[in-house]
Amino acid sequence: MKSGSNLERVLEEGHFAVTAELGPPKGSSAEFVRRKAGLLKPCCDAANITDNQTAVVRMSSVAACALVKQEGLDPVMQMTCRDRNRIAIQSDLLGAVALGIRNLLCLSGDHQKFGNHPGSKNVHDLDSIQLIGAVRKMRDEAQFMSGDKISGGMPLFIGAAANPYADPFEFRVLRLAKKVKAGADFIQTQAVFDVERFAKWMEMVRDKGLDQKVRILAGLIPIKSVGMARYMRDYVSGLMVPDELVDRMENAKDAKEEGVQIALEIIEQIRDIPGVHGIHIMAVAWEEVVPLITERAGFLPRPIV
Amino acid sequence: MLVSEQKPLEEILRSLEGEGRVFLLGCRGCAEACQTGGEKEVLAMKETLEGAGKEIAGWAALDFLCQKGLVKTGLYPFEDQIVSADSILTMCCGIGVQVTSSVVGKVTHPACNTISLGGSRGEWWGSERCLECGDCLLDLTGGICPLTACTKSLINGPCGGARDGRCEFEPEVRECGWQLIYERLKKLDRLHKLREISLPKDFARMQPPKDLRGTAFWSLGQRQEERTGDETLGTL
């Protein structure tokens, strides 16, 4: 065991893992975080706490993770390279481990242009692959990036993102291989809507034997309305939403039910793809749907490991 | 060439607050080409400032405000006007403002903002940019610099935001730098280069090295100052 986190144990025992995203508030309410954690706890193995997603300022990931942990839910701390240099990153990681956080997702970070402080200066002292390498060194060699010794262990289960839909397509698997080589233990992918393309990507992943080296959780975004479907199709970079799904949402009598139905169909198709070890549900501002989807997909109760 | 644009008039007037007499200084180099500080723009500024109640002590448009020697000799004929002014408004890039400020003992205000071109373009400028990072990566990236071609300066590959080969930041004008690198390496049959992990950069190398300072590479003007021991114009 590298971290002993609930997520790591679930995956190690060969279960099909379920993680869910929890967005911290644009405010200081601990109660907000606790309430969402309480909702997600029975239906997932770990919850990803986003790090100022889309570059909009929210409660810090490390603080929200600590609150989630207190509620008995295993947090996955997301960390971007956009807002911190290597000094702040390593310092926050020490603090995270001290607070009992055991999973970390290493990200480059959305461009600040898309957030609510577009005039801010980005950092990118490290990129996500270098961050993975730095965390691996801290954990496995008990050393900071500088080579100085770290006192105390750094038990962290190291995660990374992968986007089967971004360009250049052929490079995506190569980039995944670099992340695995740098030290990633698990992968959470960008949301899958076009299952065929995802399956093709997974085939390339298996050809390189990467599914044997890393645990891959396929991303899923439940669609709440036709407006959201259109918005994701037209404006969210890195996402690919087929027109067919937008049409289905448009013609549905009950849009939310149709969204759940689409999510269940996608789950049904991807859970049988060899090399997929779990699912990561990003119900943006719609956390209430996670219990429903996990129940109807037959994922409940979650294993106790 | 340094590209500049004029600051909004309100900002210029704010910087001139409390100063009744102003000397205007333009540049016949880049600022003239950018139409931000050539003779024409200096005269327009004269009219604008006079309209705003300022007295213009005099004006000049010199060749290359980036060259201290040219600025010193160019300003001698205007000595009396400059001495009588409360301040100088310099209409060019940030280099010219700094040079003026260093050779004239007067408050010097910038009238322009210098626009970032995302790195140096060399003396004979084209589309390639160099960030002067002190640790060249171009061997790994097919001769396209990821620090200047990628909006996040990622050095191990693209983020997840590119679509149809365009950067999410400004898809209408920007290609994804990593798409370009990928295609170049593919063409050169060097895709294996992308498997190598680039370690974190030593950004300390972006500070100019100590042994370069005081050499001709660092500044010809500085050597002149060391010889003459005086950098400001005698009476100004």
Q: How many strands appear in the DSSP assignment of chain B?
A: 6
The major pleated sheet of chain A works out as: 8 strands, parallel, barrel
Helix content of chain A: 40-55%
Low-confidence stretches of chain B: none
Please state the average pLDDT score of chain A.
96
Q: Choose one word for the global shape of chain A.
A: globular
Strand order of the largest sheet of chain A: 1-2-3-4-5-6-7-8
Provide an overview of this structure.
The complex is a heterodimer of chains A (305) and B (236). Chain A has 305 residues and is α/β, with parallel strands linked by helices. In chain A, 41% of the residues lie in helices and 15% in strands. Chain A is built from eleven helices and eight strands. Chain A has an eight-stranded parallel beta barrel with strand order 1-2-3-4-5-6-7-8, surrounded by six helices. In chain A, helix 2 (30-40) links the parallel strand 1 (17-22) and strand 2 (46-49). Chain A starts with 5 loop residues before the first helix and ends in a 9-residue tail after the last helix. The model of chain A has no long low-confidence stretch (mean pLDDT 96). Chain B has 236 residues and is an alpha/beta fold. Chain B has two domains: 4-114, Response regulator (Rossmann fold, 3-Layer(aba) Sandwich); 131-229, no CATH class. Chain B contains nine helices and six strands; from the N terminus they run E-H-E-H-H-E-H-H-E-H-E-E-H-H-H. Chain B has helices at 9-15, 30-33, 39-51, 68-75, 79-84, 94-103, 146-149, 177-187, 220-228; strands spanning 4-6, 21-27, 55-62, 87-91, 107-110, 112-114. Chain B has a four-stranded parallel sheet with strand order 3-2-4-5, sandwiched between helices. A two-stranded antiparallel sheet of chain B has the order 1-6. The longest helix of chain B has 13 residues, at 39-51.
